[in-house]
Design a protein that fits this description.
This protein is of the alpha/beta class. The chain is about 35% helix and about 20% strand.
Length: about 110
């Protein structure tokens, strides 16, 4: 699974998602790019976009995109670390599904 991590999330998340091809927005050279443009670019190279921006679903027409979006409930490092196992399970479940899904992960 090719995963793009939003710049609002800790970069350590990229290292924790083993078994996937993971890139941060910063490493891709897209820091500061607006969400609409970022998603448009990302859908050509990635299967999943992971963010902590809950407003994304109200700002963008996600159903027309060829990329899945996963929203974490926080960008605080300590909480993101706790969510890594759930995020890995979610990525595994998405592997066989269609693109264009929007999923919110909740705190346990």
């Amino acid at each position: 699974m090719r995963v793009l991590i939003d710049e609002c999330l800790p970069r350590m998340l990229a290292r924790r998602l083993t078994g996937h091809d993971v890139v941060t927005v910063q490493a891709a050279g897209w820091a500061g790019v607006s969400n609409g443009r970022l998603l448009s670019i990302a859908e050509e190279r990635f299967d999943v976009f992971v963010t902590a921006d809950p407003r994304l679903k109200h700002q963008q027409n996600l159903q027309q995109l060829a990329i899945n979006v996963i929203v974490l409930p926080s960008n605080r490092r300590s909480l993101v670390e706790k969510l890594v196992p759930v995020l890995c399970e979610t990525l595994a479940a998405l592997a066989s599904d269609r693109p264009g899904q929007y999923l919110e992960i909740s705190l346990p």
